[in-house]
Amino acid sequence: MKKLSYIFFLSLLAFSCDVFDVQPEAAVDENTAITNLGGLRAAVNGLYDRLQTGYYNGRLAMAGDLSAEVAQSVGTWDFYREMDTYRVSPDNNENRDLFTAIYQVVNQANNIIAAAPGVADATEPQKNQALGEAYFARGLAFFDGAMLWGGIPGVYGTLGITLPLEPSRQAVSLPRASLQETWVQIEADLQKSLPLLPEASAGAPARITKAAARGMLARMYLYLKNYEQAANFASQVISDTKFQLLADYSTIFNTKNTAESILEMQFDNLDQNAIRTWYIPTSAGGRGDLAAHTEFYDSIPAADDRKKLYAFDNNSKFYYPTKYPRANNLDNIHVLRIAELYLIRAEANYLSGKGDPLADLNRVRTRAKLPALTAITSIDDILNERKIEFAFEGQRWYDLLRTGKALVRLASVPRSNSPGAPAALTDARRQVFPIPSVELNANPNSVQNDAYR
What we know:
By secondary structure, the protein is mainly alpha-helical. It is built from 18 helices and 6 strands.
């Protein structure tokens, strides 16, 4: 059995009960934990808990928006200020926690993949669903890890990430894979999940289904510039009548689990998200350390319905997003929604010269009460739509990276915490975050990204 660095395995089996109506098992050795259907259900429950409370609780979204020109650090939390100004240290706590949480998801998925086939009292459909959810979660975690610490072949970055494929609680070393190997594994995991997952689930969009796998494959193929496959998988989701653009944009966030949502992480009084506290100003009971970038807010057309989801705080003099309106951090976090699939297909078809990208783009624009465009003049028409549509959902940084625009768009960005000199991303090597120091200290076979050595 391969063994991994200890950072992957902190608190591996602290399960919650959000997804399955079963009590989770105690944190026992993975070799004996999943021995029956109840244990398998508890393990999958733990997998969702890892995704929810680990890094899809707002941490990933905040890192993505702060690193772009959508959000800014306006408080005193140094670790987010570093992301805001492209000075992330290998000792950055937020970066470390993201790394830990992502590999906790990977290891929990590995536990299920290894054990599910041998669970004697589970039916084949039950085994398949557990395996499908595990392969999807591992592919998603590797995807997010690649974007943060690795890169995309031929676009940015020089080295992939560590790819543990077996469960372990012991600490030895694995080297980083190449970028090509990393993305081959991401594709393999997502493709493996597709035939195993159910077409629909009574718990969707809280549960992973085929639509979620198709949506992630569409996103992945777009990032890899395989436009035919990106459009193909996006079309499969768009043709699924369970999903539709809501007439009122704000309803996506004011109401949980709408027809807009393909996969949505669930939060309640027991499992609370982290994002609202950081973005809500102190006058409304939050920390207010993070706010909308003023120039970004000003760039949203006055007629755009999405501009209504921002509020000005008279004390701090900043705009704050109101996409997360519920007190006590009870809002769900969207992983995939149907608007993204329309814009994926629009971009893929525009860049390949196929289909009707204008129609897809205008579906999203007109939902936001903007006039339809008569033509797409450049890829920026689509990317700007994505910037406004998915602001404070964490996608802008990755859009700039994957399209090679980060060094241009982020070369001079005014920041509240960078007075006198705008923050500037001028070093291409800083398009990836550093491997955390604790991982390097534990794993002598891992290597640091170039800019942080």
